[in-house]
Amino acid sequence: MALVIGDRIKATTSTTGTGAYTIGATASGFQGFGAIGDGNTTYYAVTDNTSNYEVGLGTYTASGGTLARTTVLESSNSDAAVDWGAGDKDIFVTVPAAKFLFKDASGNVGGGLTTDKLAEGSTNLYFTNARVDARLSGGTGVTYNQGEVSIGQAVGTTDDVTFDDVIVSGDLTVNGTTTTVNSTTVTIDDPIFTIGGDTPPSSDDSKDRGIEFRWHDGSSAKVGFFGFDDSAGKFTFIPDASNSSEVFSGAVGTVLANLDGNSSTATTLQTSRSIALTGSVTGTATFNGGADASIATTLTAADVLTAVNSVDGTGSGLDSDLLDGQEGSYYLDGNNFTNLPSGGVTFSDLLYGSWVNSGQTSAGNAAYWGLAALDDNSWPTMYAQISTYTIYVGSDNSAASAYRFRKVYRTYS
Questions:
Q1: 352: closest CA among 340, 368, 374?
Q2: Is the pLDDT of residue 219 over 90?
Q3: Fewer beta carbons within 10 Å, N or C terminal of the chain?
Q4: What does the alpha-carbon distance between residue 371 and residue 350 come to, in Å, rounded to a whole number?
Q5: Which whole-number Å values give the CA distances from 83 to 45, 48, 56, 60, 86, in the listed order?
Q6: How far apart are CA 242 and CA 299, in angstroms?
C-alpha cells in the first residue's frame, strides 16, 4: 500500500452516515478515483457546499469503488467523522495543510517538519550521544571522555598554550602587542625584511627603524642599535644606546667597512698631515684637506753654483761652452759645413767689399775686407775660381804668398 497524490481527481458521492464513501460520477474535466490504484491511500476532502466538510486520509478499493475513512484529520464535526445526511456531496483528492511541505519567505523548509517526523534509514542514522561517544577517541596526547576533548593543557582564547615542534602550512597572522621568539637559529626565506608596519604610514611617528641588539663589553651589558635614525634622517650605529619608546640615543660608533664613493659632507681630514722638502731645497706645509697647501722654498746662488759644478758637461748634458750643442773643435773641420750656396762660395760671400781689378790688394785692404790675420801660418789654403784674377793677400802691408782661389768644393789643405 502506498500514498498516492493524483492531480485533478474529483467525483460526487451520495453516502450518508459515517461509513466509507461510495464514489459516484466523475466530475466533468477531471479524472476518477481509479487513478489512485486499488489498496493505495490518498488525502481527500468532502463538502456538501455548506458549512459541512471533512479532510482526511482514505484507502481506495477498486471493487465497489469505495474510499474508506482511514484517518480524519480535520472536519466540521470537531475533527471527527461527519455524519452526512442525504444529498450529493463533492469528494476530491487534495493535500492537507498539516501534511504540506513548503519553503517560507526566507527559503527555509516549513510546514512543521522536524527530525522526529523523519524515518531513520540504514545508512544515514540519527545523531545520538551514545553513537558519537562510540565513534570518537583521543589520539597522541589527546583524550576524549563523554564529549570532552583534552590535550593536557588549557586551550581557551585567553590561555597560554605551549607546543613543541609546530609546523604551519599556510599563512600565519599574529595580532598582538608582543611576539617573543626564543630560538637560537632563525631562517627567513623572504629576501626583503619589512619593519615599521604592514601598511604605509599616514604620518611621521618619529620612531626609529632598525635592529636593537644586546651584547656585553666584558664589564656590563649593553644595548646597541643599527638602523635608520628618524630625527637625523640617516643610517646610524650606536653601540651603547638608550631606547625610549623606539627612539634611540647615544654616541655613534665606528663602522669597519670598505666604502666606495665620495663624502658629501666631510670638509677636513680628521688628522692633519705635514709635507716637507729636504735636501738643497727645503720647506714645509700642513695639509688637512680644508684648503690648498703651498710650500715656500729657499734656494741661494751658492746652492745653484754648487749644483752646477757638481756635474760634468759631457755626462749630464749640462755644458755651458757648447755652441748649438757642439764643441769648438767641430767648427774647425770644414767637412762639417752645411747649407753652402749651390753655386759654391765666392769672395763676395767671404768679404764685405769689392776687389781691385789690378789683381792685387794691400794687406791693409785684406784686413778691411774681413781677412785680418790671414797670414801663411793661420790661414789655410783655399782654392777657388773667381774669373781669371789672381789675388795677393798679406798681413804686413807687403805682398805675401800668392793664393789662387777656385770655386769652393769644401777641399782644404
A1: 368
A2: yes
A3: C
A4: 9
A5: 15, 12, 14, 20, 10
A6: 61
Residue 70, Cβ density class (10 Å: 0-12 exposed, 13-18 middle, ≥19 buried): middle
Cα(142)–Cα(153) distance, integer angstroms = 10
Here the cell at position 305 is 753654483
pLDDT top residue among 110 and 292:
292
Reported in sequence order, the residue ranges of 159-271 that DSSP labels E, i.e. its strands, are 209-216, 221-229, 234-238, 242-244, 247-249
The answer to whether 89 and 13 are in contact (CB under 8 A) is yes
Sheet holding 234-238, edge to edge: 209-216, 221-229, 234-238
The enclosing H or E element of 134 equals: helix 129-135
Q: What is the 3-state secondary structure (H, E, C) of 48-93?
A: CCCCCEEEEEEEEECCCCEEEEEEEEEECCCCCCCCECCCCEEEEE
Residue type at 359? Answer: G
Any idea what the Cα angle at residue 326 is, between residues 324 and 327, rounded to 5°? Answer: 135
How do strand 209-216 and strand 53-61 relate by DSSP bridges?
unpaired
CA atoms within 13 A on the CB side of 258: 0
In this structure, how many other beta carbons lie within 10 angstroms of the beta carbon of residue 227? 16
pLDDT in tens, 122-131: 888 888 888 8
Give me the pLDDT at residue 159, please: 87
Domain-wise residue ranges, the chain = 10-99, 209-249, 333-413
CB 12 within 8 A of CB 28: no
Q: What is the DSSP letter of 31?
A: B
> At CB < 8 A and 24+ separation, what contacts does 307-311 make?
307/280
